[in-house]
Amino acid sequence: MNLTSLDFSTYAQWSGILTIVCFLLAILAFILQWGIRFRLVGVTGFMGVLTAGLFALGLGLFTHTVIPGAVRFALVYDNGATQAVITVPKSITETELDATLRQAASDLYSYGRNSIGGDNNLTIRARVLLHPESGVSLPVYLGQVKRSLSNRDSEQMQIELFPESFAKLENYAKG
After folding, report:
1. CA 165, chain centre distance (Å)
2. pTM of the predicted model as reported, rounded to 2 decimal places
3. Torsion of CA 156, 157, 162, 165, to 10 degrees
4. Which of 8, 18, 19, 36 is spaced 20 to 30 A from 149 at the CA atom?
5. How far is Cα 18 from Cα 157, in angstroms, rounded to an integer?
6. pLDDT tens per residue, range 69-95
7. Domain segments of the chain as ranges
């Protein structure tokens, strides 16, 4: 099941209703001197905690933006602050790389990142690994994106593609 398809606010509403029912049942148990009255207090407390947790999740902790045209990428390096490196397929086009860099900028944004050395930008570089001969790996950086660390909704991303790297990639594919 996809986490973005879960509707935590609906679950929180139903859990809240069940919490109120448990609370009323606990009051009734105290009035009628039932033997399980203290257990019902515990159940009510647990339901309250569960409802609060579901409500918090319903506030939008699992937001995920999907950028059309982006291809799958893998995170290779992330210093947790201002730099990250992703790897993309060798068959990627410049248009797909642009969309993939935007997707990575959205996915890797976090309020927990801090700026080291005063740089308030997250720089994400995209690369492919070429193997010109056995036992030799050559990283080729195809592009990068710089985005603000302080503003999640900032559209002020600086995307830079490296055409000479794409030419190198085409030459490698030809033979």
Report:
1. 28
2. 0.62
3. -170
4. 8
5. 46
6. 889 999 998 887 788 999 999 888 889
7. 3-58, 74-174
Please choose, from the candidates 60, 47, 54, the residue with its C-alpha nearest in 3D space to the C-alpha of residue 20: 47
* 169 closest CA partner among 90, 94, 110: 90
Confidence of residue 1 (pLDDT cuts 50, 70, 90): very low
Instruction: Give the angle 41-42-43 at the CA atoms, nearest 5°.
Output: 90
Question: 21: which 2 tokens?
Answer: 């029912």
Do the Cβ atoms of 157 and 145 come closer than 8 Å? yes
Contacts for 52-57 with beta carbons within 8 Å, 24 or more apart?
54/8, 54/11, 54/12, 54/15, 55/8, 55/9, 55/12, 55/16, 57/8, 57/12
The 3-state DSSP composition of the chain as helix, strand, coil percent (nearest 5) reads 45, 25, 35
| CA angle in degrees (0–180, nearest 5) for 61-66-69 | 165
Match 């860099």 to its residue by tokens.
Answer: 101
Other beta carbons within 10 angstroms of residue 122's beta carbon come to 23
- Cα angle 125-146-88, degrees, rounded to a multiple of 5: 25
